[in-house]
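Sanity check record (used in CI):
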Amino acid sequence: MNLQPEFHFRRFEIKYLTDEDTAENIKKDLMPYLKHDPFADQEAKEYEVRSVYYDSPGYFYYQETLDGYNSRKKIRVRCYRTGGQIKDNAFLEIKRKEGVIVVKDRIRLNLEELRQFQKTDTLLDSGRSFSSKEENFIKEYEFERVIRALSPKILVTYTREPYAGVYDEGLRVTFDRNIKAAQNDNLFYDGGDMERIHPGEVVVEIKFRRGLPVYMGETIKKFSMIRVPFSKYRKGVEETRAIPGSFPGITRGFETVSYI
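Expected output for VTC domain-containing protein:
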């Protein structure tokens, strides 16, 4: 089995917000078609995701999300933790969204490279050699960093319970809980001042590269699941009141899913 992280993703992503009981029932309904993700802790079947999001002084990327632009972008640095230990690999990511289609590129960083990046916000002085694809990625990041004066704004953490498709390559179903955010630029920060986002609720996310499997559509109908454009970064900005005029609120723009 190849467990090497991919540089490039292009896939559909749809999200649902539900309560714990419904999330457990959805999982039970889908388990004949799913298997535990090999990247997760093999006992707990989960891992912690930790992301620091970058934005301009005027929060350009947040405003794109708030205004509902169909085409938008996020830049973040991300690592994972299992059993209380940070995994060796972290990533600098550029995530582009076109409706429900997500295109994501990322460069893998070891922990020393990650610490250096957190100090400088650039890879230009890393001394590392990059592939041509990675060099193009760095050029895009540096363009955004300079033209928008990017800096780290919001730390978002959550626990992810991930599954992969048994019969459908590229299918992933994840259950995200305990989402928290803080105005902090340290990916390893664990302070007690982090704000909770939708406590007691679960973000169910379905990711696929081609058509939505029939059994997945049947589960969506069975549990009357309603798609919601849920952005953890936007919620983090609002819950931490990072900018004037942002405030905790109810997710807007609910849509019925159009894949069934």
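The helical segments are 20-30, 60-66, 111-120, 132-147, 214-222, 232-239. If this sentence no longer matches the regenerated tokens, the check is flagged for review.
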